[in-house]
Amino acid sequence: MTVATGSPAWERPARYGRWGRAVEPTQVDRPGGKSSLPPDEVLVEQLRAGDETAFRLMLDAWSRSMLRLARSFVSTNATAEEVLQDTWLAVIRGLDGFQGRASLRSWVYRILINTAKDRGRKESRTLPWTSLAPEGSGPTAEPTRSQRPDDAYPGHWCTGAGSVSWLMPEGAALAAEVRAVIAAALEELPTRQRAVVMLRDVEGYEVQEVCSLLEISHGNQRVLLYRGRTFVRDRLKEYLAKAESDVT
Q1: pLDDT tens readout for residues 29-50
Q2: 174 is a domain residue
Q3: Would you tell me the crossing angle of helices 218-247 and 207-214 to the nearest 10 degrees?
Q4: Around Cβ 125, how many Cβ atoms within 10 Å?
Q5: Whether the Cβ atoms of residue 168 and residue 241 lie closer than 8 Å to each other
């Protein structure tokens, strides 16, 4: 079985949802309501049997989001691609050891994260995951704009914070610009914040899954998510305010 499968999944057009989120094939309804991947137990059996079609389906379903996540830990796209390649090789070699204690996707993502963190440490970019920001450091935007870490929706706008109303004569083009603003803001985040925001808001993982994948506490996850969301929303608000002023 080989990893190369033609055009990489992350180079293909994506569908977008919340915050420019690319919807992976496993999240897209197929004819008859079926997803592109079979249940884990079936997929694992196929992969262990050397089924290259099953492996290509998994590559297509997950490689785009895995590349984005790997990029959270390393400094260049080229390094992220190397991390992705190393991850898939490790998955192939380690399939016999998969015990099903977590979902196959979570198991693959854990391998990716560990590989990316190791590479990031070599680049002297990654801080220890057990540490938080310095004591007393506050959020990256004005606290009154968004909900606090202990609120129901940390990082979301507070009630009454107000939204920016703006005209959208070229909706598709502006939507692409918004995605670019969000992507640029994510790039500015510290590594830990970026990884948490990517997993929660881009990949759609639940709290417990993120804590398990990143080996952080629930409290750390809430603080990192709050600070990351607040920063991204601050950048987005600046862009929307400028866009509104440009059309009025």
Answers
A1: 333 333 578 999 999 999 999 9
A2: yes
A3: 110
A4: 14
A5: no
